[in-house]
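A student in our group prepared the protein record below, which I am reviewing. I have pasted the whole thing underneath without changing anything:
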Amino acid sequence: MKIVLFARGLLFVGWCRFFDPALLNPTAEIWPIRLPTLTSEVQGQRIAPSLDPRAVPTDVRALFERETREVLTEPYGKPQGFLVLQTRRVTARAGLGYALVSDLTMGGLNLFGFPWAKYQYVVDVQLEVHNLRRELVGTYRGQGQARATGGLYSSTNHAQPDRVLYLQCVRQGFNQLMPQLRTDVPRLQAALLP
């Protein structure tokens, strides 16, 4: 019995994809007009089901700082305000159907490609622009959705699905709010002048 459990553990670890650092890269878009230099802040909730509860907030903070510095704002100069990113997990589900069938067959079906879990995340993303007096100048919203199936032969099988799916949702939220922000840059520049 111990040998079977050990073999299943090796298969699970051997087939899982680990965290890809490319998820922390900012968008490849270069704006012709940027916002003035702003200080970035992230306000998010703790991620309860994550394997490492500090990993997700650290990942979101690293992504947002790079996005702010390389895409949204001028990198040099005295900060003229704040960019505040708020993330809120709407749903985080790990389906029980696949897990139940996998357990009933003691993992036998998993060897033939049957998934052991299905994950679904929905995350709200809100970006706020504040001036130096902390007055709200603009608010932009987006919502990201991500799904993944955990299985031996699945391309979306991750060792830390919570971490990967949460970041994918945040990136989708960015993609939705960027057009709103881009059209509002001239007004924001005027509002952020000291």
Remarks:
- Residues 39-191 form a domain with the Rossmann fold fold (CATH 3.40.50).
- Helices lie at 2-15, 55-72, 97-104, 161-183, 185-191.
- The first helix runs from residue 2 to 15.
